[in-house]
Task: inverse folding
């Protein structure tokens, strides 16, 4: 068993829930089923999770509301698995804090690979490094506690957002292309999906700006990518 990694599966369809739990179990992780939004919130409040697989259309409380609550309270990675295929729904979920979005029907091997990839990236950003702390202007990223603060006020970042910020702040003078960021954070080949990076970067900028509206932290280098603004 891989370090007793626990994954909450929030899906009201019994067959799909069972299938997802089997995928998780076959990968060496521990699944826990929840069949409604209300039941999911009970589990989320009761203990910490290493990942949440979340359907959007749920009885009791919608997946969108659960995602919003998770994003406000915890950096746990969230993978949406939903029959909703509309582009705007995906964008809204990513903006709210989802780290990945898979549409139904899904491929079993792809789900398994994406779970592994997201957990691997989350564990890497959770591990202490030789540099315990990164600072830029009034931003402080503590790699021991995996926290981000601006002028002493702690911000809530998703696992992906945190990973992107760590990449940027660890090399503050470097310009990172979207492909650089995607391959560093998602640990997958970049196939030109600009929207994924754009949404996560917009979330990071928004959270930093809300913490300090008088400061600009990340600049876009047109035609190239992003870097921290000096």
Result:
């Amino acid at each position: 068993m891989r370090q007793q990694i626990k994954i909450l599966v929030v899906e009201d369809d019994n067959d799909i829930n069972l299938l997802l739990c089997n995928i998780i179990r076959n990968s060496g992780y521990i699944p826990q089923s929840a069949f409604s939004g209300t039941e999911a919130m009970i589990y989320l409040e009761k203990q910490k999770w290493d990942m949440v697989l979340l359907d959007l259309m749920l009885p009791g409380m919608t997946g969108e509301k659960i995602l919003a609550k998770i994003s406000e309270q915890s950096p746990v990675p969230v993978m949406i698995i939903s029959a909703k295929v509309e582009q705007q729904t995906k964008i809204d979920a990513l903006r709210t804090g989802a780290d990945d979005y898979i549409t139904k029907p899904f491929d079993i091997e792809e789900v398994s690979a994406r779970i592994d990839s997201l957990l691997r990236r989350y564990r890497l950003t959770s591990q202490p490094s030789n540099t315990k702390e990164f600072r830029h202007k009034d931003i402080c990223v503590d790699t021991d506690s995996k926290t981000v603060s601006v002028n002493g006020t702690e911000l809530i970042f998703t696992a992906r957002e945190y990973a992107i910020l760590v990449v940027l702040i660890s090399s503050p003078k470097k310009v990172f292309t979207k492909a650089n960021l995607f391959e560093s954070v998602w640990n997958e080949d970049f196939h030109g999906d600009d929207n994924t990076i754009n949404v996560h970067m917009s979330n990071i900028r928004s959270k930093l700006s809300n913490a300090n509206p008088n400061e600009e932290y990340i600049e876009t280098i047109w035609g190239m990518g992003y870097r921290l603004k000096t």
